[in-house]
Amino acid sequence: MLRFFDLDRSEAAKRSVVERIKDFDEIYEIFRPAKASEQAERCIQCGDPYCHNGCPLHNYIPQWLKAAAEKDLEMAFRLSNEASPFPEVMGRICPHDRLCEGSCTLNDGYGAITIGSVETFISEEGFKKGFRPKFSKKKSGKRVAVIGAGPAGLSVATFLLREGIDVEIFDKQNRPGGLLMYGIPGFKLNKKVVERRVAFLKEAGAVFRQNMEVGKDIAFEELVENFDAVFIGTGATKGRGAGINGEDARGCYLAMDFLVNIQKQIFGEEVDGAIDVKDKRVVVIGGGDTAMDCVRTSLRQNAKSVKCLYRRDAHNMPGSRKEYLNAKEEGIEFEFFASPKEILKNDSGEVIGVEMVKTRLSSADKSGRQKVEEISGSEFVVEADIVIFALGFDPVAYPFLAENGIETDKWGGIMVDENYETTKAGVYAGGDCYRGADLVVTAVRDGREAAKAIISRLIR
Ligand code: FAD
User: Fold this and answer.
1) Are 387 and 398 in a shared domain?
2) Which of 57, 120, 167, 184 has the most ligand 1 atoms within 8 A of CB, as the residue to mutate?
3) Is the separation of the CB atoms in 393 and 437 below 8 Å?
4) Cβ 240 under 6 angstroms from ligand 1
5) Of 189, 200, 270, 440, which has fewest CB within 10 angstroms of its CB?
6) What's the pLDDT tens digit per position in 122-151?
7) Residues 17/49, Cβ–Cβ less than 8 Å
8) The domain that contains 410 carries what CATH number?
9) Has residue 455 been placed in a domain?
10) Are residue 176 and residue 95 in the same domain, yes or no?
11) Pair type for strands 386-389 and 351-364
């Protein structure tokens, strides 16, 4: 350990831009064994490990780094699966720069340990060697219904199955995974990685009921009646538009509709009107991770040009810096300090451009973030055939919630107590449907903590 003196931080290699923009395969390569243990050896094994505290899951990071450095892959695999339901996913798509790596002591001057890449290596190498996640063989006789097979739902299912509690997961999509499957593009997360975890859960006894929308194809009340507890993990995918004239033009899409449509086409699934950006001028409005996923998806779908318009600057973008740099590297054009005023359309109702206005940053609001001010008289037009709004998401207020006395907050988020129990006894919730659009790792933490509460209620 302590090799940070003579060994620099080294990130996982990326495929060349020319090659990677031709497909939806992951852009990062997996560490080779020698590099993984070398990078893990840089860890200084802090007494009070900030990486562990910076991780919403409080993963045993120093411990599995030590095991990886000592080439004890089995131990590293076991430890990394302990607090996390799918470390190979988190290693790939967590914003490490803001969480574990951002908190690493070495981040201040020496370069943080490449925690994410080592985490991915441990899982992938472990799977190659035949290591598998462990589940209880003893059954408790209890059954829990999970609504939503996204990260929150898969997490609660994992931790319940580890204690011998059976789960039945109801999901309205064709495939399990939630946004891991239909939102986050394949160049960040290969879909086979998600399918592999789902297969482990099935082997452990989980029953997946796809194309089942609760509230439509099956009544929520039926689940309450037939199961010992219910967990709601329905996410927050109701997209926000810009609230400007012309948004109804043909060729305007909400980010989620766009990404799901393209992913379904990639899977060869049926879509209600295939979106085609080939040879079109695509404009994406927004500056977060979803906007980056939309621009990079459009590029891979052979758009003629792809432009990202954002009302602040690169420094103030809300998403991961790494993903912005990857998009820039791939040739995406960015226009900062620009806000949309109106969508322009032709007589047939098709989008032909966006009227924008220049902006500047002014005084800070209560949160300390600088406000955005429009500069009058600075309007300009950006020509476009396709406009995608990537401006955030809200939870869907399903009628079954209010009908069953499950309270929501003013943003539509399900309210829960410290045990993730909703205002209806025996019904739990977590992930984006409770906290609003956030991260995979927080959804997974909610699922894990809700599972602990359900376990205490049912079998302890
Ligand atoms: P979801 O993943 O949304 O899953 C909810 C599930 O519930 C879905 O499968 C849905 O079909 C199902 N469902 C909904 N309603 C019903 C119903 N009535 N009946 C049955 N099933 C229902 N986070 C990161 O950490 N890193 C990233 O790189 C990242 N990239 C992102 C990119 C995009 C484009 C988006 C939109 C989000 C991204 N996020 C990222 C955020 C992350 O994906 C979410 O925070 C996370 O998926 C939330 O998990 P969840 O289980 O709460 O909800």
Assistant:
1) no
2) 184
3) yes
4) no
5) 270
6) 999 999 999 999 999 999 999 999 999 999
7) no
8) 3.50.50.60
9) yes
10) no
11) unpaired
